[in-house]
Design a protein that fits this description.
single chain; alpha+beta; Heat Shock Protein 90; 2 domains; two-stranded antiparallel ribbon; rod-shaped
């Protein structure tokens, strides 16, 4: 019984050593070298195999007290057995390689399908955004004719009201500006924010404690609509804007195609204090519009809410609708 165990143990080790180490080592050599190495390596492997078989025969002879006959038949039998295991071990290597390549191809196909689905979701999100954009529009001729009529009626009576109407007209003009590649100019978005803040300051008699700064050059960059203005609206919706010693801030910094947008505001405890749903929606839109090209963080500390958004707009500018 021990004879079979020892012999088969050597055969198993020989089989797997060739499949996992010796043959892969030969195959990985340079093309001009590996074919030259095949025969010498096989001879070396067979030689090692024969040495182990002879050692086992010698050890078994010590237990059974039988003389070892190193005849031609002895060597031929184990050389043939070694070649037999080398052949099947090589086949096993290529079978494993085929299975591994099949799994790799399947994973690549799966990743390709996933990317296509993600792209389709991105297109769908863009269509939804465009539809929402269009749904917010009014007939432009009717709108501007009406606003001009109101402006002409009230401007001579109250220039301040006239200014409000003009700012409202600019905001409405912004809302019907045609999209380019599903996006708007960053400069238009910034101007929209500026007008939105100015209108709210007029609404509250310039009593809002708010700092708004724009730094850098927009470089004709484009951005998906309704991202930044939504975050600005959150400041007005949830922030305490009456504390002059700790004013809210909205900072826009553009540098080499990268947009850095940050806000800071005291949390108004009398209002709904959860930014969660709106910010989750923004996060999902960023994932769709700017995959791997944005950083979006927000936190609340000592009743102060901090938000930071960084987007590489230049990298993303040709992502859709090329």
């Amino acid at each position: 019984m021990i004879d079979y165990v020892l012999y088969y143990l050597i055969n198993i080790v020989f089989f797997y050593m060739h499949a996992y180490y010796a043959y892969p080592f030969i195959i990985k050599q340079k093309s001009s070298l590996k074919y030259v190495l095949v025969l010498p390596y096989i001879v070396i492997e067979l030689g090692i195999y024969l040495i182990f078989m002879i050692l086992i025969a010698y050890v078994l002879n010590l237990f059974h007290h039988k003389p070892i006959e190193f005849s031609k038949l002895f060597f031929l039998r184990y050389v043939w057995r070694g070649i037999y295991f080398l052949f099947f071990s090589t086949g096993y290597y290529y079978l494993r390689l085929a299975i591994r390549n099949g799994i790799l191809v399947a994973n690549l196909e799966k990743e390709k399908v996933s990317r296509l689905l993600q792209q389709q979701m991105l297109e769908n999100e863009l269509i939804k955004s465009e539809n929402a954009w269009r749904q917010s529009q009014l007939n432009p001729h009717f709108l501007f004719n009406t606003l001009n009529l109101i402006f002409n009626k009230v401007n001579s009576i109250s220039p301040q009201v006239g200014d409000i109407i003009m700012m409202l007209s600019e905001i409405m003009r912004f809302s019907i500006t045609p999209l380019s590649q599903g996006k708007i100019k960053l400069s238009d978005e910034v101007e929209h924010i500026r007008l939105f803040i100015k209108l709210n300051q007029l609404r509250f008699n310039d009593k809002l404690a708010l700092v708004f700064e724009v730094r850098g050059d927009d470089e004709n960059l484009l951005i998906n609509p309704l991202l930044l203005i939504t975050l600005v609206e959150n400041v007005f919706k949830y922030g305490d804007l009456y504390n002059e010693t700790n004013p809210a801030s909205i900072i826009i910094d553009i540098n080499d195609g990268v947009l850095n947008f940050s806000t800071k505001n005291l949390v108004n405890k009398r209002k709904v204090t959860s930014h969660g749903i709106g910010l989750s929606n923004i996060t999902e839109r960023l994932k769709s519009y700017y995959p791997n090209q944005y950083q979006f963080t927000y936190t609340e500390d000592n009743s102060t809410f901090y938000l930071n958004l960084k987007i590489n707009l230049r990298h993303n500018e040709n992502m859709l609708h090329n």
